[in-house]
Amino acid sequence: MPKELRIENLHVRIAGTDTEILKGLTLRIRQGEIHALMGPNGAGKSTLGAAIMGHPNYEVTEGILEWDGKNLLEMKTDERARAGLFLAFQYPIELPGVTLFNFLRSSYNAIHPPAEGQKPIGAVMFHKMVLDALQLLDMDPSFSQRYLNDGFSGGEKKRCEVMQMQILKPQMAILDETDSGLDIDALKIVANGVNRLRGDNFGALVITHYQRLLDYLTPDFVHVLMNGRIVLSGDRELALELEKRGYDWVREVVEAKGVPA
Amino acid sequence: MSETHDRELLEGLDTYKYGFYDTAEPVFKTEKGLNEDVVRMISAKKNEPQWMLEFRLNAYREFISKPMPNWGSPLLQEVNFDDIYYYIKPTDRQGDTWEDVPSYIKETFDKLGIPEAEKTMLAGIGAQYDSEVVYHNLKEQWEKLGVTFLDMDSGLREYPQIVREYFGTVVPPSDNKFAALNSAVWSGGSFVYVPKGVKVEIPLQAYFRINAKNAGQFERTLIIAEEGSFVHYVEGCTAPMYSSDSLHSAVVEIIVKANARVRYTTIQNWSYNVFNLVTKRSVVYRNGTMEWVDGNLGSKLTMKYPAVYLLEPGAHGEILSLAFAGPNQHQDAGAKVLHFAPHTTSNIVSKSIAKGGGRASYRGLVKAGPNSKHSKSFTRCDALLIDDRSQSDTYPVMDIEENQIEIGHEATVSKVSSEQIFYLQSRGLSESEAEAMIIAGFIEPIAKELPMEYALELNRLIQLQMSGSVG
Ligand SMILES: Nc1ncnc2c1ncn2[C@@H]1O[C@H](COP(=O)(O)OP(=O)(O)OP(=O)(O)O)[C@@H](O)[C@H]1O
Ligand SMILES: [Mg+2]
């Protein structure tokens, strides 16, 4: 059975303040599906990704957040990662002094621990995996020994997020504007990276501002986040429509439907 | 982390043979406290030449005439000179038993996967580690090259002329109270002599443990690198060294002749009862290079500022200092570079980490004396605070008496960022693993200069410290 990420009536505020960003958001994503999430700047898209991964700055005050029937709200961030969730960051952090290779190896061993009595994956095998993943993202092999995101260009950081995803093989991924800052070739390469993982055991929530990525990714669903909720959902066509008409059009549609937007 | 992982880390270390020996010699130690008779007795027990006795007595007078330093750390006032044994015949250090070793140290040994045989040696209890087999092979190689690597007492016996020529010339007893103390009561340490043009490929290191039996409270090391030679001396160990002695006060003197290069690497991890007050200094002649790589973990208080005196044009000094201060610890570490000739250069990198209320201080001196035109010195010191309770401070002193000098100094204090932790946790690492990884990155510029097995041990040790499972 495909696993499901279940988000229901989710209320999230900035920890330590009264500022509520998500105000009763509901969304279900099953493995095998790709959902695109769009919405104006500051709508709360990244907040949703952060809340799903358990960022301490975002406090869930109400609602349900479950993965595969497990209550994520009771799990630490690393436990969520080990349960198969992955977030490709809008702004990946830099970690000087730690090579991409060493970082990924620790991460891989944490998420895919060796079975009882087995050794962790050897350095040589792992090195090969890293080189393959780098090649897939059209990144130079030397990135393996560079410090994590340290001095990477904006586009390289984004590729690196998808490269990590290849290695870590999550069961459900949130990609937060992974397409921003990518040139047109890179866009295809990154989309290809996601498509490679596509299948019955992989689902994704792809946050983006541009329907162009969706040309290569072909999402099953497209949602619009405004005022702390999903206000409109549809298929690929919705993204094309949005591109043409902008978010004012969404507001009109939503008002016409009688839903406060 | 799994046990297999521990072993993997230590594989590199387990490449030598070892054994134990018992000693039937009677226990000899002086009474607690220090006076002239004690100094005379030490010298007599060792059958030293008259000049060394006089050197010791003179140093003893310096020691009593000097007040306790009023800088560094208030903890210094806790040192009680009357409550210390100043000489215990090294082979007779059998007072302690395995039961006396604090449990946190035993646990760390277990977690590091230190072999049984080595544990007792590291714990400093009686039985000694003897790697004669490996040592003998290497010793033959060194001897062919004319290199001498002995404990200091043997050095004095076998090479009295050389020792007399250099001993106490780099760090005179009058230098500071603790150097004076060491000069009066020294025992053990190493004597290294590298002849002209000889490059010693394999580091001379304490992992042959030949120094273990001499690792005393008042070690004295003298290294002489003749013109154009090279040697790397490695001292210490990342596993905690248990000592029931509360005061360790060593002196290291290094002479780097023209075009020679010496690297001296230390990793020390004393048990938390120890005051570690060490004077390390080198003098460097024309186009010579001295490199100190100095890592300090453990101890209650460490005060250590490896120094380089650049005496002739083209001399270069490099000091990499690393300090980790945990709960109830004060690491007062740093560096001193003194430019006394034109066209001399130096580089200082200090990295300190404080956690759990610990305090890490950087204390540095860069001096450009008269006649040091066209010299350059750069200092970078970075501090990383793991939590709000911990403390970091820097005391850089610059003393510039010459013009046309280029001096740079950069200092940063940072905290482990919650965004970094979140990112790493989102990749499956626990909070403590994430912190350990951030620290490993922070100290990388120094760790990469360490011999491989030391770097691995160091990272492992930091992981243990961050997981709160030791200390
Ligand atoms: N730590 C914080 N402190 C204060 N305000 C915050 C914090 N994090 C987010 N916000 C605010 O919450 C709102 C939602 O931010 P979020 O980053 O989720 O938007 P977004 O939809 O991802 O926007 P964009 O498309 O620009 O990436 C914004 O108004 C933002 O300023
Ligand atoms: Mg965003």
Give an overview in words:
The complex is a heterodimer of chains A (261) and B (471). Chain A has 261 residues and is an alpha/beta fold. Chain A starts with a strand and ends with a helix. Helices cover 38% and strands 28% of the residues of chain A. Chain A has helices at residues 45-53, 77-82, 100-111, 123-136, 154-168, 184-197, 211-217, 236-257, and strands spanning 4-14, 20-30, 34-38, 58-67, 70-71, 85-88, 95-99, 147-148, 172-176, 203-207, 221-226, 229-234. In chain A, helix 4 packs across helix 5 (154-168) and helix 5 (154-168) packs parallel to helix 6 (184-197). Chain A has a 6-stranded mixed sheet, with helices on both faces. Chain B has one domain (3-304, 416-466). In chain B, the strands form 3 sheets. In chain B, strands 3, 4, 6, 8, 9, 11, 13, 14, 16, 18 and 20 form an 11-stranded mixed sheet that branches. The longest helix of chain B is centred in the last third of the chain and has 17 residues, at 431-447. Classes of the chains: A alpha/beta (261), B alpha/beta (471). At the A-B interface, helix 2, strand 7 and helix 3 of A face helix 10 and helix 11 of B. Magnesium ion binds next to helix 1 of chain A.
